[in-house]
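User: Is it possible to get a 3D structure for a protein together with its bound compound? The compound here is NAP. I've pasted both below.
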Amino acid sequence: MAHKTLAITGATSGIGRATVQELADDFDEIILLARNEVKAEILKKELKEMNRALKVKVIECNLASLISVEKAALHTQENYEKIDCLINNAGVVSLSRQETADGHELMMGTNYLGHYLLTHYLMPILMKSEAPQIVIVSSNAYGFTTLKSDYFKGKGNVMNLYGRSKLAVLYFMQELHEQFSDQGVRVTAVHPGAVSTNLGRTKQNEKFGNLVYGALRPFFLSPAEGAESTVLAVRNKERYDGMYMHAGKEIRLKPHGRSYYARKRLIKDTIHELYLDEFMEH
Ligand SMILES: NC(=O)c1ccc[n+]([C@@H]2O[C@H](COP(=O)([O-])OP(=O)(O)OC[C@H]3O[C@@H](n4cnc5c(N)ncnc54)[C@H](OP(=O)(O)O)[C@@H]3O)[C@@H](O)[C@H]2O)c1
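Assistant: Yes, that's possible. Here is the predicted structure of the complex:
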């Protein structure tokens, strides 16, 4: 049987952590693309305890720094002939306005641009798989907003800025599907639900965060429950191909989430912003 490799971002906490724990027996090797190598090494140990045959590799990748993303992706390319599945799971919610190392608004820069560049660089080794797959973790927060101009560096309230980044990854999923479906790439975006994780929590707002999550706990899913949509997508790539999905059911996107022109404009602007030549050239 062919050796199967998964690469995932954001596995050091919450939904990503539960995802790799659930998928530990589905793959021969897991690449943890993580900004915090210490947390990733602890997770690596736990995964190895769950499945002794599993190979786990930690590669430093800070999605809020394009140089870090490039280094991580090139390192992956050098060390792996192919990967079979890429899960773009990492995400950030920032209550105050912050920027990435490259001057992009933090949520758009991390959740969308960092993942776009990572996918761009990993595409050649994904295409070496007999059944390549990309799963993108989005959010129904996409519905809060449309993509207004200056979306990479602009201002706004937290829900609008987070929503923009999650709308952008939904357009990204649709573009990948349109351009790579006939080359065998299967791509799905998922909404995990409202899940009790570290999302939006910082040292500064820890008390407040605990209070809010504590009060809302009965209404929130556990990380393992939140990982279910991603796991379903990974295990049923044909069934959910090209879909935005939650808990096994397709979510019909609102009209702005399906806008062809907004998507094409975003992709054109992204190529320009990242100094690339064309969409996912390889
Ligand atoms: N929780 C929800 O209710 C909910 C709802 C809808 C969608 N989502 C989406 O689900 C995904 C997972 O979020 P979660 O709820 O599990 O949150 P979480 O517990 O905060 O986990 C987020 C993960 O992303 C990583 N990350 C954040 N910034 C990064 C960066 N600059 N570079 C690399 N990795 C970075 C974190 O790394 P560290 O461990 O180093 O912090 C962590 O592993 C996100 O895409 C989020 O938008 C969550």
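The chain has one domain: 5-196+223-273. Residues 9-10, 12-16, 35-36, 39, 61-64, 89-92, 110, 137, 139, 192, 194-195, 197-199 surround NAP (CB under 6 Å).
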